Amino acid sequence: MNILIVEDDKLLQQALDAKFSDAGARCTISSNGREAIEALEKEKFDAIILDIIMPEVDGFQVLEEKQTSLNADTPTFVVSNLDAEADYQKAIDLGATKCFLKARVTLKGLVEEIVEELDK
Questions:
Q1: Domains, the chain, ranges and CATH?
Q2: Which terminus of the chain has fewer Cβ atoms in its 10 Å neighbourhood, N or C?
Q3: Above 80 in pLDDT, residue 117?
């Protein structure tokens, strides 16, 4: 399992990397949307974990760019502090597979749900 983690919070990056690595994944970390877009053009991933609010390029723009990349069909899981239904709907409309509110999901639960989704 090859996962792209797009998150600007360093502690959350490390925690996600550790949890997914424990689940057998190889993780690539991008700290902002611009790095993520570059990664999406260079490498095929099995899943993308994507924050929305980030410096330089936000997650919505990453979702738009993803549509014409090597990863156009790669499942993308938005993990954000945004708690507005309109934001989640926008993410889904742009191709997100599922959205999670950071405050309402544990790392363990997030990893389990994503691994389960990928196993379908």
A1: 2-113 (3.40.50.2300)
A2: C
A3: yes
